Every structure is written in structure tokens, then in C-alpha cells.
Amino acid sequence: MTTLTTPPTAGPRSTGAASPRRTSKPRPTVTAVVTWIMAGLFGAFLLAVLASVIVASLGGSWGAGWLPGSVTSDWFRQAWEAPGLSSSLAVTFQVAVADVLLALVIGVPAGYVLARKSFPGRSAIMLFALFPVILPPLTYAVQLAALMYRLGIGGTLLSVILVNLVPILPLVILITVPFVEQISPQVEDAARVFGANNLKLFTRVLVPLLTPGIVAAGVLCLVRVLGSFELTFFVSSAETQTLVVTIFGAMADPGGPPAALTAAMTVFYMAIALIGLAISLRFSNPAQALSGSAHRAV
After folding, report:
1. pLDDT digits (tens, 9 = 90+) for 67-124
2. Which of 104, 126, 153, 292 could form a disulfide with 178 if both were Cys (CB 3.0 to 4.6 A apart)?
3. What is the pTM of this model?
4. Are residues 95 and 37 in the same domain?
């Protein structure tokens, strides 16, 4: 008679693996706490400034308090219909489009050459390209204005375009160089093997790959031109003022338009600048490219 024996139930085996340990949350350091506090204070201050401008542009009547007694959107209509604002908007659009196109057409090929070619003085050129970007525009605005008037084009639209091209052209170069360096040279060699000349190589191969950098550089140039006050102020006339110069003139004139009307004009300016910045951050991180380029130049 065969006896069936039931195998013993296997107990918990030791696999040698360590049992999961409870990970304690890292305690915030003093540096992290101070950083978050400072960032929060800065963000709150920035939002307070923006909110104050928006509230001032909507105020119909004011009393003794912080908030207006009545709210109206009529100031935006008056700002839009103001002759000075409409003409300055047209000038701003012309200057911005012309400067961005010129900066991209000149800066992108120049950035490609600096990224791919090694020649004496390359590091010096990269270093000098940083100066118009990091220096305050007032340090060279007066000299550029004097040069424009000596050439006989001071006060014209051409002079406004040329002086605003000075800080944004190096910006395009500095942003383009890291993007080009991220592209393997083997991609260009393969395109040449298949018969692509220099023009087709640049337009059909490199430009699609450089699109994030080109878009970021173009939008940053647009934002820089929109905010350029000193360079435009010294060379523009009454017919060639950009929006930021027109707003400054309205705020500096004691007998000028009401404060609410000036605030409505400022809201238009802030909206244009914020839209451009949002588009730039959507496509790429130009600040990282600029910092990398600056590190290579030094």
C-alpha cells in the first residue's frame, strides 16, 4: 500500500532581498526655505504691480480708498482710438518685424559659422558679442544716437531700426551657437553625400533642426525691441516713437492724458510682451542656451 505524503507547506523563504524601508522625507534646508520665501515675495510684488496697473486702467472714479469707486472699460477704447497710440503701435510693429527679420537673417548664419569653424579670435568674438546683451543700453545709446545724427538719418524710422538691431543681433548669435553644436556633423556629411549643396543643406536640413532655437531667438528679440526705451528715445522723433516711448511721454507730461488712460496704454504694452514671452517659453528654453553660450565664450 502506497502512502501518499503531503509535502510540507513552504514557509516564508529568505530571498536575501532587503525588506522595503520607510524613506523619510528630506527636511527642508534653510537655503531652500529662504529661496522659496524670496521667490514668493518677488512673485507677490510683481503680481501686485501688474494688478495695480490693471485696476488703475479700469477705474471710473476714485475715492479715498485703494479701489476705484466705479469700474469702466472706456479707458481702453480711448487708448485704442488715441492718435498717438495708433501711430506708435504701427511704428512698433514695423521696427519689431524689421529688426527680428534682419537679426535672424544675419545672426543664424553667423552663429553657424562660429559653432562649426575654428579660427583665431573666435573666443574673442563670442566674448565681445556678450557686451551689447549684458551692458545697460544707456551706456552706448548716446553714442549710437550721435552717430545716427552725424549720418543724417537721426529721427527716421531707419535709425530706430538700426539702433535696436545692436543688442538683438548678438543675442541671436549667442542662442544659435549652442543649438548648432547639438547637431551632429555627420548629419551634414550625409546630406552632402546625397548631393545637397550649401544652400539646400542650410535651408532643408539645418533650418528645420534649428527651428526651436530660431523661434526662441526671434521671440526674445521681439520682446527686447518692445522694451527698448533708451535706444529708441534718443534717435526717434514725434513720428517714429515706439509704444514704450509714447507711454513714457504721456506719464512724464503733467498736463498730459489722465492716469487711467496711461494705465490702459500700459496694459496693451504688457499684453504684447507677455504673449511674446509665453510663445518663447513654449518652444524652448533660450535662457539655458544663452548661459551655455556665455560659458563657452569665457
Report:
1. 776 777 787 777 777 766 778 888 888 998 899 999 999 999 988 888 888 878 788 8
2. 292
3. 0.71
4. no
Residue with cell string 529708441: 232
The pLDDT tens digits for 38-48 are 989 988 988 88
224 close to 290: Cβ distance less than 8 angstroms: no
Count of other CB atoms within 10 angstroms of residue 259:
15
Helix axes 157-181, 122-134, angle to 10 degrees: 130
- Mark 71-100 as b/e (b = at least 16 C-beta within 10 Å): eeeebbeebeebebbebbbebbeebbebbb
> Does the residue 249 lie in any domain?
yes
E strands along the chain, which residues? 59-62, 68-71
**Cα 30 from Cα 127, distance rounded (Å):** 36
Whether 21 maps to a domain, the answer reads: no
Q: Is 149 exposed, middle or buried (0-12, 13-18, 19+ CB in 10 A)?
A: middle
CB atoms within 10 A of CB 294: 17
Strand partners, 71: 59
For the chain, what is the domain count?
2
